[in-house]
Amino acid sequence: MANFNTHLNVAFMVSGTLSLTVYKAGLIDDSGFLGCVALGTIGGLLPDLDSDNSTPIKLGFNITSFVFAFGLVMHWRSDLSLLALIALWLAGYGFMRYVIFHIFTTMTVHRGVIHSVPYMAILGLGLTCLSYYGLHLPLTTSWFYGLFLFGGAMVHLALDELYSVNLSNMKMKRSSGTAMKFYQPKDKWWYLLIYGVLALLIYAAPPFAPFVDDVSDPTHWQQLRQGLLPTLLETWWTHKG
């Protein structure tokens, strides 16, 4: 399988290139561009959440633990003494970082149900719903956020599958087929739950047809063509023609 740096760099390059494309087409604004790059890069790390020793899961739980502890302190800051707040801060961080982290790593198996296409689709659709219904972002931006998160995850799974091929003698390694998967018989009940949740999210998702209409609008791609080449090169090409 590909390592952390490979996943990070490739996901960043792919999401950055695609984000610039839709940005220059006028489909997203400045903040949308930054959001798509960030979410595509994060998506490129998401499938390794089920790896107990992976950098993403450790970093993610560290950040979550800090945020959880901070939230506890902010909520009780007016009611507790300084020593009590310090104790609450340490207890909240320790609970998330060690207790919840231990439970999560015990219940998950690397390249299990988390490391699959439908699970990543749930995260992508969930983000789209959260962006549109919860954060009240524009429809097109919400769909792009979900698609970039899902796309980054697909880059991760594709890299893992590519690294499962021994190019020196063109043989498949034992890990082949364990990355980009849709179902495993040994986890059938988990997959039944996953596909059930996915079906509910598809039903609850914001309308997709207006997003397609916006993306396929010729004016956006005309704008992209006009800004495709540097001014100097475009002038030279025009004069040459």
Helix segment tally: 10
Helix content: 55-70%
Could you give a short account of the major beta sheet? 2 strands, antiparallel
Proportion of strand residues: under 5%
Say how many strands there are.
Answer: 2
Report the principal-axis shape: globular
Summed over residues and divided by their number, the pLDDT gives a mean of 77
* Separation of the first and last Cα atoms: 48 Å
Low-confidence stretches: 166-170
Helix/strand order: HHHHHHEEHHHH
Radius of gyration: 22 Å
Q: Which structural class should the secondary elements be placed in?
A: mainly alpha
Strands in their spatial order, largest beta sheet: 1-2
What does this structure look like?
The chain has 241 residues and is mostly helical. The chain is 70% helix and 2% strand. Strands 1-2 form a two-stranded antiparallel sheet. About 2% of the residues have low confidence.
Give a brief outline of the structure.
With 241 residues, the protein is mainly alpha-helical. It has helices spanning 4-24, 30-43, 55-76, 82-107, 117-134, 139-162, 188-204, 209-215, 218-226, 231-240, and strands at residues 165-166, 171-172. Helix 1 (4-24) packs antiparallel against helix 2 and helix 5 (117-134) packs parallel to helix 7 (188-204).
